[in-house]
Amino acid sequence: MPTDETDRDGYLLRPIGRVESPLTRRDQAPRQGDEGAPDAWLVLDAAVADAMRDLTAGTDVLVLTWLHRADRQVLAVHPRGDADRPVTGVFATRSPDRPNPVGLHRVRIVAIDGLRIRVRDLEALDGTPIVDIKPVLGPAAER
Amino acid sequence: MPTDETDRDGYLLRPIGRVESPLTRRDQAPRQGDEGAPDAWLVLDAAVADAMRDLTAGTDVLVLTWLHRADRQVLAVHPRGDADRPVTGVFATRSPDRPNPVGLHRVRIVAIDGLRIRVRDLEALDGTPIVDIKPVLGPAAER
After folding, report:
1. Closest C-alpha among A18, A30, A116 to residue A65
2. Does the distance separating the beta carbons of A94 and B134 come in below 8 Å?
3. Which CATH number covers residue A127?
4. Complex confidence, ipTM
5. What is the pLDDT averaged over residues B89-95?
6. Residue A76 lies in a domain
């Protein structure tokens, strides 16, 4: 059954799990995962165990998160918080502050232990809700 | 003000616009944009005009959509709908049917006309809600 939840003025994103990370403050987090982010765990809910069963260590995946500490009212920022850079519309930046603060993170899976997935280089804060995991697409001929 | 909307059991995704496309049925749509998808328009709401003001024609962006016709109950599928391929957990596939059906599309901007953005190779159906636009990240040194 297609579930078209147009209740109120949007769609309800339901977290499928949470990030466990040593990063607890926004000012500790690197701007992107490949700029020195630590390893972290993706801790998934038992309800989605069947959806994660074919993930494997050693592969890269895209993790989508909900950046729950972001400010959704912000439409333009100094990129990377650098006051010397001109104010830029957020759709041309990776600012966490944006109308729908969905985080997009490419990470390497290093281990899987039941519902826990160990990943390399994730800049999301401890407790960040996870909303989806997707494979990185290879060339069209190999899909 | 950080808006931590933990009302009910999730977060409210508010569309920032809609896709205008000649694709109206799921069986018409290619599996991925680079497999023969048509050009389409991203028609943004006036409320986010300041967020889009620095997008430019000729660049690639990531468009996030809400695949509103997807089935959120599905946890495993035959990849690409091919019954000869073993059933696979959706987090290891790009199936639109998944717990949070956020679509991720890399497209080339070919023109911008006010709140309308013309893009190449978008496989989303006509009317699909748009939730975010992000730049493609280049090498860390160029950010």
Report:
1. A18
2. yes
3. 2.40.30.70
4. 0.90
5. 96
6. no
